[in-house]
Specification:
OB fold (Dihydrolipoamide Acetyltransferase, E2P); alpha+beta; 6 helices; 2 domains
């Protein structure tokens, strides 16, 4: 994500903030008119002000927390685990904000010692909004990366792999083993030709026999002077010294 943001510039990043804020405001309207979490008995206008204020404050704080945990998707190696941790972290101070807002707007009699009663609902809303924003951003990145003309290599995928994500391409004699989100298969092709046709997907050749997509990497290990990448399908890919320097510059290992 970091490289993508650097490539598309601040204008598109600002649009990303706008999309996230729009999600928060729509959620605020839903919570207002549904009377969520026992707020339905309050008058409409105070209820609207209450939820919209909380959604905007929550979004600003959540955007900062998510920026730290999800910026390059490499905190734990698992995007959804990172999202869950981010929601958990942002929910702690937001619970105090919700307690204060509820006390001020609705004269709530929940004592400060009863904050734990509010933590669950706050965490639930935080996780839902984080998940929605992650899905939107993931979809946007996929469309941006593919562009109007998908990489030519995708046309070579066997029918059973069409529509899947290409995670890696491994050379086996005169064939290439395709590692994708829909499984594996072999095609007759040279790795050098495949690498050229994979232009448009963020990835790199990491070994004379391997090309790997950046988003397919779940872990990177270094030891005994060599590095190994672990992919989403469990495959372990060796990194040769020829490509190690480039991958270190990119922050892959």
């Amino acid at each position: 994500m970091k490289k993508l943001l650097a490539r598309i510039g601040p204008y598109d990043e600002t649009r990303g903030w706008g999309r996230g804020l729009a999600v928060a405001l729509v959620a605020g309207l839903f919570l207002t008119f549904s009377g969520a979490f026992d707020t339905g008995e309050a008058p409409l206008v105070p209820r609207l002000v209450y939820w919209m204020t909380l959604m905007v404050v929550g979004y600003v704080w959540g955007a900062w927390v998510s920026r730290f945990f999800l910026r390059d998707r490499r905190r734990t190696g698992n995007m959804w685990l990172d999202a869950a941790i981010s929601a958990l972290v942002m929910s702690v101070p937001l619970t105090v904000v919700v307690w204060a807002a509820t006390h001020f707007m609705f004269n709530s009699n929940v004592p400060f010692s009863g904050l734990w009663m509010l933590f669950g609902p706050v965490l639930l809303v935080s996780m839902a909004l984080t998940a929605i924003n992650v899905l939107i951003e993931t979809r946007r990145e996929a469309m941006t990366a593919a562009g109007p003309n998908p990489p030519k290599f995708l046309e070579r995928l066997p029918l059973k792999l069409r529509g899947g994500e290409v995670w890696a391409v491994e050379a086996e004699d005169h064939y290439l083993r395709l590692h994708t989100s829909k499984g594996q298969d072999l095609i007759l092709m040279r790795l050098a030709d495949a690498v050229a046709e994979l232009e448009g997907i963020e990835g790199a050749q990491v070994h004379r026999s391997w090309w790997v997509a950046r988003d397919a990497i779940t872990d990177a290990k270094r030891g005994d002077g060599r590095a190994t990448l672990k992919l989403k399908d469990g495959a372990e890919v060796p990194v040769s010294r020829t490509y190690a320097g480039i991958l270190r510059e990119r922050g892959w290992i």
